[in-house]
Amino acid sequence: MSSRVEIVPINTGSNGDPSHRPSTGTHTLDDPPTNYLEKLGTLWMKHRGDARPGILYKLDKLPDGYTVWEKPRKTDPKHVDKWLFGNPNHKTFDSPNRFFPHFLHLMNSGGNSVDCPCTVCTTRGRSMSTAGVSTRLPGADAASHEAVNDIAGVPLDCEGTPDVFQILIDKLKRDHKLDTPITQLMSLNWCAHRLMAQGILETLAGTANWLPRPLEMALFVREFEKDEELCRDSSGNFRLYNTKTKAFSGFPEWEAGVIGEVPQEELRLDDLITETEKETNVSMSGIRVEPYSNPNLASTSTKDNKFWSKRHKYVPMHHVRPFIFWQEYLRGIPEQEWHPTIKHVLTAMATLALTDR
């Protein structure tokens, strides 16, 4: 059974510029612009809290001066891209979701676009592409009702998309309670990076806790002498221990770096203590660690950063320890004798990163 269609009349007033049209003859006027009229009508009714189940809402028209033009995509002529023209800045909107904050502002201000928060009007935002180049974002049409309610009148981030973190902070202050997933469906970076993050999270879930992870910060020792192991002495310090002479010697020469590659050959718990026999060489059975450069240097092209980045090393598992235990493993070693990369990692770890934010 098809939904009943209800026409929603728009408010008077518009800042539309009827002279804003495609500059080439490759576009066709979409009249009536059914897709925009239906989606904007539904978004507006939901925003007002007047939407009812089973009813399809449709605007009676677009604000004066705004028109929709379409053009077949070059790489897939069966797919037709649509752009909305008419903004006085002569920038286009590439979807109803993109246009909705601007439309809502016009409806609430009598057609005045001053202080409009949309990505075209704001000076902080990123202007939409000109006609002929599609900038449709994955999942943009699936924006939730709650996100639509929050999108108007909020600050934008550096990408010109709604700052969802500020939105949620404001909502938490207002409601004193919040439990909602963080999504940024209008952010191209978020959509792309989330695919990568999902794979990383799935890999981590199936990895033993004692195994190193790619991009993990770690302490490592480049070389151990024959019959040397890392053991804790009677004072609680980690020192080099010779299994043949049964005697402790000095401290290991710890460096700090980031895990670049993890072993391709299966490891056992014994590998944490000493080097066990492997079927492949250390470049396959070991761990690639890259010494960490100074994060406070402005450019990675400096001599210092190049020096450290070129000193990567493949080492067996027992040469590596999680950097989170740096205080335990560096205990007894005077700070002035620490390797420079240790200070580099301590500086970098003062920041916070979110996975699948």
H and E order: EEHEEEHHHHEEEEEHEHEEHH
Instruction: State the helicity in percent bands.
Output: 25-40%
Would you report the number of β strands?
A: 13
Envelope shape: elongated
Whole-number total of structural domains: 2
> How widely separated are the two ends?
40 Å
Order of strands side by side in the largest beta sheet? 12-11-10-6-13
Number of helical stretches of at least 4 residues: 9
Largest sheet: 5 strands, antiparallel
The helix/strand class is alpha+beta
Pfam families: Clr2_transil (PF16761)
Region (Disordered): 1-32
Biased composition (Polar residues): 11-27
Protein name: Cryptic loci regulator 2 N-terminal domain-containing protein
Give a written overview of the molecule.
The chain is of the alpha+beta class and 357 residues long. It has 2 domains: 4-191, no CATH class; 217-348, no CATH class. The protein is 25% helix and 17% strand. It is built from 9 helices and 13 strands. The strands form 4 sheets. It has a 5-stranded antiparallel sheet. Strands 2-4-5 form a 3-stranded antiparallel sheet, with no helix packed on it. β4 (67-72) and β5 form a beta hairpin. The longest helix is centred in the middle third of the chain and has 18 residues, at 188-205. It is elongated, with a radius of gyration of 29 Å.
